[in-house]
Amino acid sequence: MADDSPRRARPPYRPLAGGLVVLSLLAAAPLRAENGVPPPAPSCAACPPLETVDGAVAIGAGYLFDDAYAFGDTFGRARAGTYPVLDAALRWTGEGGQYGALHGADLGLDRRALALDYGRQGRFGLSLDYTQTPQRVTDSGETVYRLEDDRLVLPEDWGHTPPTGLLPDQAETLHPLAIGSDRRRLGAGFVFFTPQWDYTVQVSREHKEGMGSIAGAFGTSFGNAQSTLLPRPIDALTEELEATAAYRGPRGTWQIGYHAALYRNGSDALAWDNAFDTVGGAGGQLALPPDNQFHQIHLAGDYHLGERTRLRGRWAVGRASQDEPFLEPTVNATLSAPALPRDTLQGQVWSAVWDGEVVSQLSPRWRLVGSYRHEEQADETPRDAFQGVVNDTALATGARANTPYSFRKRQARVSSAYTHAGHKARAGASITTHERTFQEVDQTVERRAWADWRWSTRPLDVAIAVARSRREGDAYTPVETTDPPQNPLLRKFNLADRLRDEASVRLSRLAAPELLLGVTALYAEEAYPDSPLGLQASRETSATADAAFILTERLRLHLFVGRDCFRSRQTGSEAFTTPDWSAVLDDTIDTGGMGADWTVTTRLEVGIDYTGSRSTGAARVSGAAFPEQTVRLDRIDLTVRYRWDERRSVRLQGVYEHYRESDWVSAGLAPDSIPSVLTLGSEPTAHRARALTAALQYRF
Amino acid sequence: MNGRTRVEAVRAGGRGASFLPVAAVLVLLGPAHAAPLAPRQGAERCLTCHGDHTGPKAVAILRTRHAVAADARTPMAQEGCAACHGPGEEHARIIRQPGAPLPLLTFGRTASTPAGEQNRACLRCHADRGRRNWQASAHERANVRCVDCHRIHDPVDPVREKAEQAALCSACHPRERADSYRGSAHPIRTGQTACADCHDPHGAFTPKALREPTLNQLCWRCHGEKRGPFLWPHAPVPEDCSLCHRAHGSVHRPLLNTRLPFLCQQCHSVAGHPSLEPEPGGLAAGDLANRILLGQSCTNCHGQVHGSNHPSGAKLQR
Q: Are A144 and A671 in contact (CB under 8 A)?
């Protein structure tokens, strides 16, 4: 029996409607006397009015005690000082189902959100929303460059000496650089309902602005390359449109939709002065992400084939295109590159995704599921041979043809589940074929089998799952277009033969009405048996435990702990022959937290939460250990709410966050630490941030 | 069947089940009150015991979208509380014996009603395109109840608030919670990126219940600069972002599965630029070793890892 078919939906009770009516007519008076529940008044006095206005507004101020740039990533403010607190949630409902709502959160911070809704429930709805999302990476960067007329220029007295010892005489030319960005998104939507159709249109416009970083290299080989990490201005616009029409019928649902996405970059190139005079020309120019667009239509639906079987499917076809004019092969005036075979990319990539599924409840206890998925991407960008210039330094040896990558992935799955007395056992298998162009392996085939068992009773829920998969591919053949060639013993991990085993256990127990316990454990292991070079094996283990207590009506506690471990092993060859080194990488992450919610009195509530995370990354190469990379996070959130009366309350919130990391990649790295790379000299992130807010909340 | 046709069936008395609400009213009121009450008045009968002053706080549902009588699809425009909980006349008639199950559809983890039956009550109205993939979805297979995530009786359903969603999902997905606390992560724990921004908890065709037809299409909605196409693509990029990135959070910036240079060296070892052995000693001395270890490692030179549109960008450096 299809268990969620709307057509066959019935109330879960078995009425004796006619008999009940007769009984009621014959014995109404004695029945009322027995149950003792008085008949209701003619109007619903306990019900709220049909037209209401309610909401809450919180106004106050906060103070951030510390400058903490990366803290602004999550908190919404990075600089010490005072900030406004303004939150609002207002709702209006009308007698005829009309509604309006205004929702604003963190309006005084960089991560603000504001939403407006209006409509008539069941008829139409309008929405308008604005969100701002900050990203704060680091503010400890330093650069000698300044941006002038879309070009990164060096100081006028720049020495252009070789990188070693570059800056002691010119340290005063460095100025601070912060890496981060802000996304500002404005969205609008409209939905219209009829009894069987609904129509939706959503549009959005997001502006991303800020500063990133990117490498600008000169030189023609690994041996003579010199590079600079450059500040990269970010100024990009993404606009989206989504329109759908959906139908609800007695035997299923259908939907057609269109999605369009346009990406616009404020600049198509980044030019910079060459900081070195030993290699390359006076400057360089690289291409920033080009404008592109994507259009897709989709059809989706489900159909009830009889009472027990449901068919569902989706078909989506899209096209991504990009046709921006090419930059010149070089800005080095001393070099003369041949003309380009064409002026623009004329790039287009077709994508097609088909999903089909059959779910059949063969009996109340036995279900069969079969599915097929086809995912295809056809890059129809024209191929031509481009005679390039290596890093604005010298002509490349010979022209090189571009390689538009295409792939096709197909998967068939079947599974069967049997349920009895709270036990549910399931087993299934799948086969996935993956074909690619311009890759070392034309086709891989992966076969997977899995089984899981679940036992659900009211206090206890246990689930165990295991799976094994094996991937095999065609012969590994070097790709002609790879120049210079790869070591023929190298196997890329996404193409290589692979064995994968997985197992997981999940247990959740309601030990008492006031105590909920949960435990999970996961194990996954991969091996690449036919990969002389490259990734050899990986293993992931995870264990977590959660508990939630209701100690009293007024006091609730919760805590959680968890450990995740990830280990991988790979080999390499410095001599470009057989493996001559190996590396073992270990990442361990411990996470834990606890919290309490305490209703001290009918007016006073206190909540406190602590979360801690300890990450350690270790690397050993041929037995020699790198320093450990560590990340430590401790965060405490405290909330105190005092209610003056039903409408007014005071809310105090405190946040403490201590974050520190150590990473040998960046620790003590000055801009001139690396002889051939002028870096941004960023330090590992560390901050201790304290914030306190006080707000008056009024409910109406 | 959609809400409108259900209402029509009840009014027509075409099915035995639809006859019951009228019968329930007659039983409760007797002949003196034979005319059926409006559903909100019927709800007040339940509120006699289940109002704010005693018992579970049921009245709050009357401030939610489920109680908008002007919308014919809502429970309160149909059978009132009985639309979800079943008829109340028997429940109101008998004295409940300790330990005996309620003759009603009850919801929640401790309820005697099986999860599937609880969910069917919701799916009578909500089996629309948003729940097309519910049957046989990961959550349905795991016996997740609608009410495990949704608070039907609350004026504000926490799971529909972005700021609250991560905490709720973390109750069953602790690994993803741990990932969100790593050094490089999407802003999930603060609610700026909600779980439902990427995943459809009611099920989807795409693996991991992703909202878009493919993982890459989902990523490109926020990271459109990576979509391309490019003159010089980097093969794993258009195929699958997760070959290099771990979306919930990672120890290695930016959201990398493995730190550099090791990640690149898993796939690259070319003549003239072999996979140099990263040596701890190279941290302090040596030019070439420094360059592949410190700063941004391989991307100290190869900055265009997602692809380049520059005619001279074949090596992803321009």
A: yes
Kindly list the residues from chain B whose CB atom is less than 8 angstroms away from the CB atom of residue A50.
Answer: 69-70
Radius of gyration of the CA atoms of chain A, in A: 32
Per-residue pLDDT tens for B145-177? 999 999 998 888 999 999 889 989 998 898 899
Residue B5 in this model has a pLDDT that exceeds 70: no
For residue A331, what are its two tokens? 């800005």
3 state SS of B87: coil
Q: Would you call B316 an interface residue with chain A, using a CB distance cutoff of 8 Å?
A: no
Tell me if B277 and A312 make a contact (CB, 8 A cut-off).
no
Other beta carbons less than 10 A from residue A502's beta carbon: 17
Kindly list the distances between the CA atom of residue A400 and the CA atoms of A126, A385, A397, A404, A482, in Å, as whole numbers in the listed order. Answer: 53, 5, 9, 13, 10
Cα–Cα dist B79/B63, whole Å: 17
- The secondary structure element, H or E, covering residue A96 is none
- Interface check for B1 against chain A (CB to CB < 8 A): the answer is yes
- The rounded distance, in Å, linking the Cα atoms of A385 and B231 is 11
**d(C-alpha A247, C-alpha A663), whole Å:** 55
Question: Which chain A residues contact residue B206 at CB under 8 A?
Answer: 355
Tokens of A63: 């103070």
| Contact assessment for residue A455 and residue A461, using Cβ atoms and an 8 Å cutoff | yes
**Distinct helix (H) and strand (E) counts, chain A:** 2, 36
Portion 143-182 of B in contact with A at CB < 8 A: 143, 155-156, 162-163, 171-172, 174-175, 177-179, 181-182
A690 vs B204: CA distance, rounded Å: 42
How large is the angle between the packed helices B115-126 and B3-12, nearest 10 degrees? Answer: 100
Instruction: Give CA separation, A580 vs A574, A625, B86, B276, B277, in Å.
Output: 7, 17, 72, 10, 8
Interface touch A351/B109, C-beta < 8 Å: no
pLDDT in tens, A651-685: 999 999 999 999 888 888 888 888 888 999 888 88
Q: What is the ipTM of this complex?
A: 0.90
Is residue A353 a contact partner of residue A314, using CB atoms and an 8 Å limit?
Answer: yes
To 5 degrees, how large is the angle CA A39–CA A43–CA A44?
85
Q: Which residues of B touch A37 (CB under 8 A)?
A: 28, 45, 48-49, 92
Provide long-range contacts, Cβ within 8 A and 24+ apart, for B29-37: B29/A39, B30/A24, B30/A28, B30/A29, B30/A31, B30/A32, B30/A39, B31/A25, B31/A28, B33/A39, B37/A40
Interchain contact, A373 vs B51, CB within 8 Å = no
Q: Please report the residues numbered 91 through 150 in chain B whose beta carbons come closer than 8 angstroms to any beta carbon of chain A.
A: 92-94, 103, 105, 109-110, 112-113, 115-117, 119-121, 123-125, 127-129, 131-136, 141-143
Q: Which residue has the tokens 């790879």?
A: A482
Query: What is d(CA A268, CA B313) in angstroms, rounded to the nearest whole number?
Result: 14
Tell me which chain A residue has its CA closest to the CA of residue B184: A137
A623: Cβ contacts below 8 Å, ≥ 6 apart: none
Ramachandran class of A219: left when φ > 0, alpha when ψ lies in -120 to 50, beta otherwise:
left
Cβ pairs bridging A and B (under 8 Å): 544
Q: pLDDT category, A147, cuts 50, 70, 90?
A: very high
Task: Name the band, by pLDDT with cuts 50, 70 and 90, for residue B233.
Answer: very high
Query: Which secondary structure element, helix H or strand E, spans residue A20, and what is its range?
Result: helix A17-35
Helix axes of A17-35 and B16-29: crossing angle, nearest 10 degrees: 30
Rg (CA), chain B: 29
Tokens 């001395």: give the residue. B285
